[in-house]
């Protein structure tokens, strides 16, 4: 049984009913409907911490989805899972792919910045000052772009940029 039919809480059930109605009403192909169904099931599994199941659904959605904008969100969510699993290199690959399809995906820009910032802090702990500066500068570049696209979303990043004279 698809995950979308197993939702237990009211909000998930409501979303599922509305999404099912929209899928029936909107003029979309069966392939697009199937892709959205896999994407929706992936989001549901991801929200419950079932990352392996979520990835399976996202990969199925990627096989079916042809729209670059929609693919960007699938790739972004795959990146989120890899970030959650501590696989930052793989996460970066997916965030970059998402941005190739949707340059306005400010959440991906922010997550890339967070990873570079984290790596910069790791470099400091390993007494690699020059590497940390490069990584912090990369983080700053991505945060600046994310802030340009979503000025009120990343106040902590704005403050970090000011404190570190990277604005």
From TrEMBL:
It is a peripheral membrane protein. Keywords: Chloroplast, Membrane, Photosynthesis, Plastid, Repeat, Thylakoid, TPR repeat. TPR repeats lie at residues 35-68, 35-68, 72-105, 72-105, 120-153. Its main location: plastid. One of its GO terms (cellular component) is chloroplast thylakoid membrane. PROSITE patterns: TPR. The keyword Thylakoid applies. It is found in: Plastid, Chloroplast thylakoid membrane. InterPro entries: PSI_Ycf3_assembly, TPR-like_helical_dom_sf, TPR_rpt. GO terms for biological process: photosynthesis. It comes from the Eukaryota. Seems to be required for the assembly of the photosystem I complex. Belongs to the Ycf3 family. This is Photosystem I assembly protein Ycf3. The gene is ycf3.
């Amino acid at each position: 049984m698809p995950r979308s039919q197993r939702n237990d809480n009211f909000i998930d059930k409501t979303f599922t009913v509305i999404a099912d109605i929209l899928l029936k009403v909107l003029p979309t192909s069966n392939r697009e409907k199937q892709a959205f169904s896999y994407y929706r099931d992936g989001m549901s599994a991801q929200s419950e911490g079932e990352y392996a199941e979520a990835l399976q659904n996202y990969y199925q959605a990627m096989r079916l989805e042809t729209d670059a904008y929609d693919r960007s969100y699938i790739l972004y969510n795959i990146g989120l899972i890899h970030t959650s699993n501590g696989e930052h290199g793989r996460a970066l690959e997916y965030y970059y792919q998402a941005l190739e399809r949707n340059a306005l995906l400010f959440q991906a820009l922010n997550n890339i910045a967070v990873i570079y910032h984290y790596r910069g802090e790791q470099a400091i702990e390993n007494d690699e000052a020059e590497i940390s500066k490069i990584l912090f500068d990369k983080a700053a570049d991505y945060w600046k772009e994310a802030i340009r696209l979503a000025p009120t979303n990343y106040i902590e990043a704005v403050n970090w940029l000011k404190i570190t004279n990277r604005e």
